[in-house]
């Protein structure tokens, strides 16, 4: 299983999936047939996470070829990502508390064996090795993995979420963190997700059988309650000549770029990250950014920390494509405060429209998908 790193290649994969395989999604999406047989899912998440292709254009391309009723599950899955982002935007302290929690959790022997794939659970060990080798896991498998991690191995969900973020090509602050919270039973309080032997056997096509799991565990308890905070993004009519783009907003062509003399793509290295990424993940990000450089439409460069510092020594005013709550925004907030920067954020109209529906559960958001599709002419 190989992942491409350019927008044109990602669009080609999307087109082929729409033409040949999307019809299997509704009935076969929960089956993990192994790394050599992924036609029942799109495997587009690494490109959507970095917005090499966006959720909205993906939905539009799918609905151009298929009626909503035939691909409703796939469209809903695409919008889950937007819902999670909006949910975290409205409750940013969930992310900062998660990062803070990691600092005080000790790494015991059970944890060390788990991350090496040396437990007594065969499927779990195989998934650890698959994650490290391919930097990807099937979505249903991720849920099963997280449940085993939390309820059978008894490990903190935060360390599991960190482990996924380290190795996944599609690691996303909102989707990853909130999915682990959901499995643990603290996202929807009192409702946890328990992996069961029959479930793993069925959805791995009987590859694994008679797995000894804790199938009766109670949800994790977390008394912290997170109220909704208004989304405050500094946006003004002021337009600067320099645009900064982070690695999770790569499709800059969807913005008006005519006014910019220069576009800088910023890649955070591990020295300034709270969660250190696998070298293959950093290289994947670098290749994606490189594929966006030297286009005729704009002058561009790739930046790392030193280059970023050089820029802010010369100017305090520039535009930034809003990177959403997560590592990139946390870094940016510190830099803004330390250097008294005047940043004008550029946002996607679709995001801001969708995020207001993330104030409640996904069912409420899902009922508004037809409105979203109609408003932005995606269907």
Characterization of the model:
- This protein has 379 residues and is α/β, with parallel strands linked by helices.
- It has three domains: 7-90 and 355-375, Serine Threonine Protein Phosphatase 5, Tetratricopeptide repeat (Alpha Horseshoe); 95-203, Orthogonal Bundle (DNA Cyclobutane Dipyrimidine Photolyase, subunit A, domain 3); 242-346, HUPs (Rossmann fold, 3-Layer(aba) Sandwich).
- It is built from 18 helices and five strands.
- A five-stranded parallel sheet has the order 3-2-1-4-5.
- The protein is globular and about 60 Å long.
- The model has no long low-confidence stretch (mean pLDDT 94).
Key terms:
Rossmann fold, 5-stranded parallel beta sheet, 379 residues, DNA Cyclobutane Dipyrimidine Photolyase, subunit A, domain 3, alpha/beta, Serine Threonine Protein Phosphatase 5, Tetratricopeptide repeat, 18 helices, single chain
Can you give me a brief rundown of this structure?
By secondary structure, this protein is α/β, with parallel strands linked by helices. It has 18 helices and 5 strands. The protein has 3 domains: 105 residues, Alpha Horseshoe (Serine Threonine Protein Phosphatase 5, Tetratricopeptide repeat); 109 residues, DNA Cyclobutane Dipyrimidine Photolyase, subunit A, domain 3; 105 residues, Rossmann fold.
């Amino acid at each position: 299983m190989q992942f491409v790193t350019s927008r044109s290649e990602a669009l080609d994969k999307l087109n082929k999936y729409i033409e040949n395989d999307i019809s299997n999604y509704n009935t076969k999406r929960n089956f993990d047939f192994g790394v050599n047989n992924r036609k029942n899912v799109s495997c587009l998440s690494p490109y959507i996470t970095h917005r090499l292709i966006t959720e909205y254009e993906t939905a539009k391309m799918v609905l151009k070829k298929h009626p909503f009723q035939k691909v409703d599950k796939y469209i809903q899955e695409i919008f889950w990502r937007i819902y999670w982002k909006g949910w975290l935007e409205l409750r940013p302290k969930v992310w900062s508390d998660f990062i803070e929690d990691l600092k005080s959790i000790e790494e015991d022997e059970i944890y060390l064996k788990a991350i090496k794939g040396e437990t007594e659970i065969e499927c779990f060990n195989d998934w650890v090795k698959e994650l490290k080798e391919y930097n990807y896991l099937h979505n249903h498998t991720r849920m099963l993995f997280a449940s085993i991690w939390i309820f059978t191995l008894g490990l903190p969900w935060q360390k599991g979420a960190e482990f996924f973020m380290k190795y996944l090509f599609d690691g996303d602050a909102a989707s990853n963190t909130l999915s682990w919270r959901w499995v643990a039973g603290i996202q929807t309080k009192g409702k946890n997700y328990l992996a069961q032997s029959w479930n793993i056997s069925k959805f791995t096509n009987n590859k694994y059988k008679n797995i000894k799991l804790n199938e009766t565990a109670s949800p994790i308890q977390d008394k912290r309650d997170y109220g909704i905070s208004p989304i405050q993004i500094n946006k003004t009519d002021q337009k600067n000549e320099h645009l900064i783009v982070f690695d999770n907003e790569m499709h800059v062509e969807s913005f008006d770029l005519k006014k910019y003399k220069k576009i800088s793509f910023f890649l955070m290295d591990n020295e300034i990250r709270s969660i250190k990424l696998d070298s293959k993940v950093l290289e994947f990000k670098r290749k994606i950014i490189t594929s966006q450089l030297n286009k005729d439409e704009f002058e561009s460069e790739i930046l790392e920390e030193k280059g970023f510092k050089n820029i802010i020594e010369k100017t305090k005013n520039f535009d930034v494509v809003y990177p959403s709550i997560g590592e990139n925004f946390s870094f940016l907030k510190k830099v803004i405060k330390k250097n008294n920067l005047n940043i004008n954020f550029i946002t996607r109209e679709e995001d801001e429209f969708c995020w207001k529906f993330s104030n409640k559960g996904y069912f409420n958001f899902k009922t508004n998908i037809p409105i979203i599709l109609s408003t932005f002419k995606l269907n």
